[in-house]
Amino acid sequence: MTELKAGRKRSESSRLAILQAAFALMEEVGFDRMSIEGVAARAGVGKTTIYRWWESRGVLAVEAFLTMVEPAIAFRETGSAKEDMIAQMQALAELYRGPTGRFVREMIGSSQSDPAMRSAFHDLFLAPRREAARAVFRRGQAAGEFRSDVDADAAIDALYSPIYYRLLASDGPIDERAVAKIAVLVMNGLGAAT
After folding, report:
1. Among 20, 22, 148, 170, which lies 20 to 30 A Cα-Cα from 68?
2. Which class would CATH give 62-190?
3. Do 35 and 8 meet the contact criterion of CB atoms below 8 Å apart?
């Protein structure tokens, strides 16, 4: 969550209404066309409330994205780290196939010229997801599913980079079949039987 600027304490119900409104608008019109005015109108709050609570439109977008998608992309614990990673990769790919993929592309592009947004995207989304993936990978190493001599960060890069490449730079699909092929190829190299 972003740090609250000086002023009145946030109302949790207003905060959630704002985040839901921002996410819904991004799904409808994309990040580039989402406006603070539109979010305020949909959430039933004043623009000043949003400006007081979020540093920028980009930071609001990142927090809205994370809040709404976290349940769908969280790692599950099934007893198999390999299966947990594949399921999470599939969930991420499914999310990026829809309208969310379009506005995530826009957010990543915009974050390159918005340091606060880039920092929020890293701190609120990328770093926690990476730490969760690292924990699952290490659990798999401890259970003998993955080779113990493989660096967790290198394995995570090898598994997830193709999804982001397809999202950002390719016309290739981000479908279940493509993700399964990536997982088989990489996990064979990690020592995991697929």
Report:
1. 170
2. mainly alpha
3. no
Instruction: Determine the pLDDT at residue 149.
Output: 93
Whether 12-56 shares its CATH topology with 62-190 is answered: no
CATH superfamily of 12-56: Homeodomain-like (1.10.10.60)
Q: Name residue, tokens 């196939």.
A: 97
Sign for the pseudo-dihedral over CA of 7, 55, 28, 65: negative
Question: What token pair was written down for 60?
Answer: 């609001």
Written as one letter, the residue type at 26 is: M
pTM: 0.84
Query: Are 81 and 136 spatial neighbours (Cβ–Cβ below 8 Å)?
Result: yes
Domain residues of the chain, as ranges?
A: 12-56, 62-190
Q: Tokens for 112?
A: 């390159």
